[in-house]
Amino acid sequence: MESQNSNLDVVESSAAIPKTLKFEFKGDGTEYFKIWIVNVLLTIITFGIYSAWAKVRNNRYFYSNLYLDGSNFRYLAEPLTILKGRIIAVVAFIIYSFVSTAAPMLGMAFAVALIFAIPYFVNQSLAFNHRMSAYRNIQFRFKASYGEAFMVLYVWPLLGMLTLGILYPMAFLKLNQYIVRNSSYGTTNFDFHATYKDYGMIFLVLLGVGVMAALLVAVIVQFVPVASGLVPLLTMAVYLGLILYFIVSTTNLYYRSLTIKDHQFDATLDISSLGLVILKNALLVAVTFGLYLPAAKVRMTKYMAENIVMEAQGSLDDFAAAEQENISALGEEFGQVFDFGLS
What we know:
globular; about 350 residues; alpha+beta; ten-stranded antiparallel barrel
């Protein structure tokens, strides 16, 4: 009996040990270029109608080549569903243009109504994109209230502006909480553990470096007039460096704050490696007059996948199987009434 208990303890303790699972992107730049060039040509020939099919082909390629723990992701959307959403958007824009010309006051009312409708459409678009994404035959989901969307799209950014940037970190925090905490894998919700202080530190660094750079420029202009010609170059370098710092810091914070059940994530992006990838991509895109864009997208996706991991507690097979049972028990059907692929 004691032997059995000890064996159980060993099993339980081993199951509790985190297992680092790496994301892997197996796409190829040359392979994706063939898909991309056909998409571009057919979209031009069909006056944009084929863009819905192009989006599905692009997403299916990237999803199917992204692996986690030996299984790839899947994109489930159909082109006609996306085309339907885009047709509705185009018709709405045409109506707005006509009304604005014929009756400016009515057009203004239409614009105000559109502003209040945007949070609803954002919710529906996120719900569609989540539902059309799957891993191990289980779809993701997104369900948020209109009020939550309205707050993160309008209220928090406005408060950030009115407080001279003091609440901008809170605006970013609320946006990520809105996206993550309303997302789920099957029936299990994601959670987000970052705080206002975490984002505040990032913004403080941006502010501090920006102020020091401005002082340095002022000193150069005042005391070294000969070097004034270097000021634009120095300003651009600082500006690009701050952008890279912001991207790296917020991305790492996002994934390190992301959890689902007992599973955690981590990201290890750094400014130098990301900057090198962006620089190489930019130069090659410029030299090839844009033809390197597909390979650049593949290169960036590979870089991101290589620098994001999942710290899994136990087997993902068991987790996915449990989710499948939960979904089957609930008998949920994902409604397609508002499936608008507006992006």
